Fold this protein.
Amino acid sequence: MWALLVLIGAASVSAHLQDLSFDGQKVFRVLPQNDEQVEILNFLASIMEVDFWQPDSVTLVRPKMQVDFRVEAEKSFEVEDLLKESGMEYQVLIDNLQAAMDAQFDSKARTASHSYEKYNNWDTIAAWTADIAAQNPDLVSRSVIGETYEGRPMYLLKMGKSGPNKKAIFMDCGFHAREWISPAFCQWFVKEAVETYGKDTVMTTLLDKLDFYVLPVVNIDGYVYTWTNDRMWRKTRSKNAGSICIGTDPNRNFDAGWCTLGASKSPCASTYCGSAPESEKETKALADFIRGHLSTIKAYLTIHSYSQLLLFPYSYTYDLPPNYEELNSIARTASKELASLHNTKYTYGPGAKTIYPAAGGSDDWAYDQGIKYAFTFELRDTGRHGFLLPESQIKPTCEETLLAVKYIANYVLEHLY
Amino acid sequence: ELPPSHFPAARAAAVAVGYLRYLRGGPGRGLQLREVRRARRQDIEDVGHKYYLELELEDVLDKDRTVNCTAEVLYPLGSKTSAPDVQVTVQGELRDTEEADKEFYNRIRSLEKELVAENIPDSHGNVPPELEPIHLLAGVASGYVIWQNSTENTKLHLAQVKHVKQVKRSDEDLQFDYVLLLHEMVSQ
């Protein structure tokens, strides 16, 4: 008799768990400034189910306290409207709770599990972005800045301790599909940020005082293609009208001397500049985001491979930028920092003269938008492996590059404008 | 005088190293450029542009040793079809590879079926150790192709061995047919 009751009890509990779904539920983080805004949270809690993650209950909420709470999917739009209207500072910490939870389970169960010392395919990276944000809500939040040609969401990670009026540094990886070490670095950077926050003074200061926007893969379609079809693919995967050839070179597709030199007007060329500046959904999404955050973004870093170079504007002309001396000096020291770890030699200088002139690059475009500190990294190596850098070199490459990036970030922090 | 680490010098260096790999490379020797120490360019009227280079190289199988060499690379004026004229002088002796070459030769000869392989290195940058000599041999072949097809505005590198097939022969020579992927840096 007892056994039967226990069995039924167990069955009903497990059924209940299966019905529970967090799909579409959002977790908000707000910063009520005054009693009035605290009252708004009280009001919210009175008209709907609000699950407070911190503090434990609405009664503990005080002005200037960081408050995290979960709401049902159907209510999340109402909540967001209310928060917007109230002028209260808020952010969406978790966009879809179910997805974040799934990602956590998935990343342990999947056969292709994420590793910072291996090349990860796109699905693994996508899941990782959800994972890392869910595990570090204090430091990381994920958003989508657009869609690729083939409809994939472009995930952006915002890193940094929450705070008012923070300036930011934007860094992207994976412009060119075959440059696998590049997305590997963006992932490494994020890992280092969350793991050393509170332990490394430089990183802690950087994340406290600045935000980092990290776009782990810009050209996702291309990246997927290098995993499934052609390891040497470079461009996007968009169709070109009137041609059988596919793809545009995203780093010739920006509105910076667009298609004047070092780029091709032929869709079949690997440096095809596209039908127009920002013709690609990916470059448009990136440019839109930067334009939309221009007042806060103070530096732009874009990671490529290979050749071991640290370049700055201009590439679309041999003319030198107004703060050439400063950029050159930063590049010189950053290269030195990088070399200090494994003696890896980098060459630095303005793009056109140092390697070759090439118009339509994102670094030149960002610079001309007013972002004074714009750098292009070309990571390891110098041709022995080229694009096929062995996985054993991921760690040393990322470690040394991180030194240079931290140096540049620190410099920017000390020279905010 | 040219900045040695910038691309104009590096382009000429790539040609010189390609040529040197063609001359002196083998299944037991892979010469790589470590650094351009010095570079000068001379514009010779009605002839072309001549680069004078001081290069520091290394053998990938003997990385601790430094191989110094000087090179002259002349890109003939106007000609897009003529290969650059290259002279290279290696300082000192290169490591002897007779043992390694013999071992490679015997190993291939003893194979039951003709060797076939593809994607060296693979997508993740790996080269199985037994295929390393085949990879280095590809460096010899690509060295020739790079030398023959370079201009002042190109920088060619061997990106990957797409396919290699041993060709059956009636004599005692070894023959391999390669399909190589070359990466041209400047036009990317």
Remarks:
- The first helix of chain A runs from residue 2 to 19.
- Chain A touches chain B at residues 118-119, 226-227, 231-232, 234, 249, 264, 269-271, 307, 345, 347, 349, 353-356, 382-391, 393 (CB under 8 Å).
- The domain at 26-103 of chain A is CATH 3.30.70.340 (Alpha-Beta Plaits).
- The radius of gyration of chain A is 23 Å.
